[in-house]
Amino acid sequence: MAYRFYGIFLANKVLKLNAANVTPAIEFSDGKDYVATNRNVLFGHHFAAIAAAGPLVGPVLAAQFGYLPGTLWILIGCVLGGGVHDMVLMFIVFVDTFRRWY
Q1: Closest CA to 26 of 97, 74, 84
Q2: Interatomic CA distance for residues 28 and 97, integer angstroms
Q3: DSSP letter (8 states) at residue 22
């Protein structure tokens, strides 16, 4: 639910994303470094990256301090902290079209 509603809130209200913008994979398409990818594949990579710390750190916190800190870590740390970090970073990179990265 957080991905669906909080992500839409961030995209529409905070970052003001525009679907008409062209991504670097389309703009600089060369078949080697810049290749357009299926959105389901991108979602899988993003989900695996952001969800990695939750299953590792959450049970350790639960074992040490109880289930509440572990649950809060997954909810606040992964969803609010990690999701915002990843989304804002991707937004900055795509809007800047990699000028600062070369």
Answers
A1: 97
A2: 10
A3: P
